[in-house]
Amino acid sequence: METHLRKKLDIIVEAPLERRVVALLEEQEVRGYTIMPCLSGKGADGAWQQGEISEALSMRLIVVIAREEAAHRIMAAAHELLRDYSAIITLSDVEVIRADHF
After folding, report:
1. CB contact at 8 A, 9 and 33
2. Which of 14, 22, 55, 97 reaches 20 to 30 Å from 35, CA-CA?
3. Is 36 left (phi over 0), alpha (psi -120 to 50) or beta?
């Protein structure tokens, strides 16, 4: 089985920012992404749970797999969009089987 190197972006944002991130991904011509609700976590401000105070403060995980050049371009654009908000953006190496999908 042959694998191909790609980059994986994980973008964690507050739920109200989800649409803005999706719009950014569409502008960057991302071929696909996955959005998942975050149930709970802990960060610099302490522990939290989904809907604890308000559904508006719920978090979303947006996952994108892309070629290296595209991933760095997306990461830079996401940083620009989200730098004044609670957000975490990570970039990691992954291997995929179907390179033509990414």
Report:
1. no
2. 97
3. beta
Amino acid (one-letter) located at 72 = H
59 Cβ contact partners less than 8 Å away, ≥ 6 residues apart: 12, 13, 14, 15, 37, 38, 41, 48, 50
CA dist., res. 88 & res. 61, Å (int): 9
DSSP secondary structure letters along 18-38? HHHHHHHHHHTT-S--EEEEE
Beta bridge partners of 90: 10
What pLDDT, in 10s, does the model give residues 35-75?
Answer: 999 988 887 777 877 766 666 668 999 999 999 999 999 99
Rounded CA gap, 60 and 69, in Å? 24
